[in-house]
């Protein structure tokens, strides 16, 4: 379901544009946690592929081993539902499970470029997932398993096209699953394990057709399961472990026929089984780990015959782990020691004694490159670091101690590309990034820092204004969360007062403008959390009153202004007290105790209307119900017990129109729906029941209340004047293709505007005067398929502005004058993450650049109309159109920080940081771009600029 946002306003003609820029990096302390999260590193198709989590974004990391050839494709995130397969190459195409903002976890493919990274098929349409996994290449056809509502988890295949991605066979008809696993290619035949109610989990094979997908053998006859595992191809014969009953789990082989599927040897006589695993192939023989008796574990090999299945090395004092083929030997770990074997008892020798004390924890990953084994291990002295072995004691050593001492500098999977090992390296300065090694200390280095260098976030919030200055709460490393102010410039953004010295700060909340000052609650070690006031100066920022003597806190909630009085509540024992204040200590007094001393209390979204406060409070006898107060003790009372007795009425979402207060209530046994009150018990009544649907989004407009009423798949716009006759539907806004939700009202004259979404990612701006005939779409905004949503809506000089978060994760600023032609894109470049506070012709908000560094930003509307007009004095791009190289230059000499290229639908094509020594133009090679229109966004020391160019 996608929401629809409502905003009520009047739009008039006007010409404003906006320049988005950082006001100040308040918290400029370097954040060491600026790592790139690297997972599922795999060498495929001549490149290293991996999941890359860069700051707050994720995508596919691609590397050829060089910094220039290492980048992240952000259009899709890598998902994995199997520990064994992440990226699988079929020719030059790499397949993986990915998820974007449109679809769930589905089958994707990539050639390592943004343009070549595409969805193969949305197996389960929409946001739901097909969860493809167990990818296996069989002669150019990719086999995998996927889950659908119609077939359950079954076997699928693809030729790389949508139409060629099909179910092979519904082995267990209907939604029930056969759950194929262990997919293995044996000379063009796919073997796998699958289960049916009749046979249990047994060995199957497939030639890619429904008829050719058959059970090989019911090894454990009947509904019991033999659990075939570790399927391995050895010279065209399938080897695996299975339990036929009576002999335990032993080694089996199959030529694809029932008669040719036999147990190789009963290694551990009796019902216990030898549990062969880590099946590894060397020179036509199979090597594996197995038990021959309860306490004896050994390295075994088999030529496929009973007599040729023998123990090479057995130990009764240690286990055997991590079998890997390296050159012409099998390497393994036993009791923290590195061993190797040429397949003979005499040739099975210890390479290095006691590298680590714990096999299972100390060793984390292995990969072989020709005759060298790379592995990550914690030897107890250096932490987890990269090691290598050439099969000799002297040649088994630490490659590089990236993080000196006992701390760890290496982790994650090791991927081999061109005989180099790639892994996750860690330093305190860069965090986790992609590293590479040629096996030497000097040849072990960072490949590329994919993360964006960032500082800690100051997270500005709680905006309020006074005398042309905006005030807010922000954190820095010296003061913690304290009160700040800004005039929209770096120099004019300063700390107001360090109320609680130290790194914790006073953490002000509920900033509220009142009587030429603003009020808030702040916490100090001396007084606890109390009421404060400020005129914007350090001297004028003082505590109003110590409500609870000493350092104890009274947990204040809300600050509401009504009839020149501030109202709030505090905790008093197990109940709450309602307070009022005129801004002085003497005028700050208790009004009444809300609820019994021993009773529960709850207050939510109180509202002041016509001299009264409406709120939710609780007593033992009535539960959570509607209360009212006129600011006196006798005038503070229960207004109506909607859910009679001590059960709650679940009242929420107060709104007022004229002298009527509306709210929603959901009593268990009472009348649920839209209610109204005039402040009297008799005048508190149900307006519209929700028995047939759901009411949301209450907004006052022209003495009426507008709301959304959702019935089945219809989303209707309604209004009410508080009477049954005056409660009517305005228009059915949407059915199954759109969802309606109202929020963020702004009243301006006689029109209200709202946003509607469709499932294709489109956004439509609507307007209405409250009649069906004049409820009309203004403009449909198509940003391409995907999940786009309107984040914030606000008004500047009677022009509607709104932020839309696009698929790149950035917020696009749009504006509208109420016409289709006047609804246009303005600016982009940051991720807006807070409410927008408008002061004159500037809008302040918290934002980051998808690096987690949330700071104070602004949109300045005191600029020349149109991006192109303002750019002619600042930014030059040439030639335009261009076919090979695009040059970008700032005319005002402002240093360029980074350049981002977006396609016409807002998709990120390329993002590059500018070299620190750049003195003239920044050249971007665009030879590989498709022909069409693009947007270049330049981040410089003086702001964010953008322009269009054409790729010929």
TrEMBL record:
Q: Which residues form the signal peptide?
A: 1-18
Provide the Secretion system C-terminal sorting domain boundaries.
877-944
Top-level taxon of origin: Bacteria
Key word Ubl conjugation present: no
Q: Which InterPro entries match?
A: ELWxxDGT_rpt, Secre_tail
Q: Which UniProt keywords apply?
A: Signal
The protein, known as:
Por secretion system C-terminal sorting domain-containing protein
The organism of origin for this protein = Ohtaekwangia koreensis
**Lineage, top ranks:** Bacteria, Pseudomonadati, Bacteroidota, Cytophagia, Cytophagales
